[in-house]
Amino acid sequence: MAPGFARRALAHPSFLLGAALTLVLVLAALVSLVWSPYPPAEIDIPGKLRPPSAAHWLGTDSLGRDIASQLLVGAQNSIVVGVVAVGIGLVIGVALGCLASARRGWTEELVMRAADFTFAFPALLSAIMLGAIYGPGLMTGIVAIGIFNIPVFARITRGAANAVWAREYVLAARAAGFGAWRITVDHVLPNIAGILIVQATIAFATAILAEAALSYLGLGTQPPQPSWGRMLNEAQSLLFQAPMLAVYPGVAIALAVLGLNLMGDGLRDLLDPKLARHR
């Protein structure tokens, strides 16, 4: 199966492009852990708004900070927010979805109504409320995005799991006396893993976009830690004087989100035989 998957993946242009863009994002974050052209928070007022050069590959901003260094280190925030926020939604949401599907009845109704209630508080609204209580910051954004992901994964898991519970082999397992949680672990989760992987990839892209929006509004990553969203915020007052200050982080956000969405779309095709593209 693995060789067949690899062969189909290599023949899937959307997946390859998405995987390449995602790999660039990950490599940028990893490289910035050990090296960057300059300290990203280093201020050099005499050298502000310099154009791209050998010393500063993408130029400097209004405080003389190296833009390339800020973009590299800013990728770390995107990775951290995506992994932790999606992890929160994945772990709690999948557990709730499996519980609702396995127990049904009032348990399912309670979990789904709680999910509907949570949908009334999008990540931005949750971040505003949490920021008012605990103050803005990276963790505030992560928690807000993670809370929003919980009902998404819960509903997807419940719907996919209900379809598996109706299969003949699950009915046979129930007739053999296996309990609900044994069936969930042995049969349900392995059969819905592909759907969850695809959703996690798409949720990762959404988390990066949400973190950028929160940082742009001042509710996410706080100075001096670089953030693509805050770079956009700082560049808005210089759009006519130095428009490239907004272009660089904007392109970084767009490419990261595009790569993850393309990879998720490709994984959907590759993991579901009914959607596989035959060329």
Written overview of the protein:
There is one protein chain. The chain contains ten helices and no strands. The longest helix is centred in the first third of the chain and has 37 residues. The protein has one domain: MetI-like (MetI-like fold, Orthogonal Bundle). The two termini are 19 Å apart. With 279 residues, it is mainly α. Helix 8 packs parallel to helix 9. The mean pLDDT is 90.
Q: What's a concise summary of this model?
A:
With 279 residues, the chain is mainly α.
Strand content: under 5%
The CATH top-level class label? Mainly Alpha
Report the structural category.
mainly alpha
CATH architecture: Orthogonal Bundle
Spatial separation of the terminal alpha carbons: 19 Å
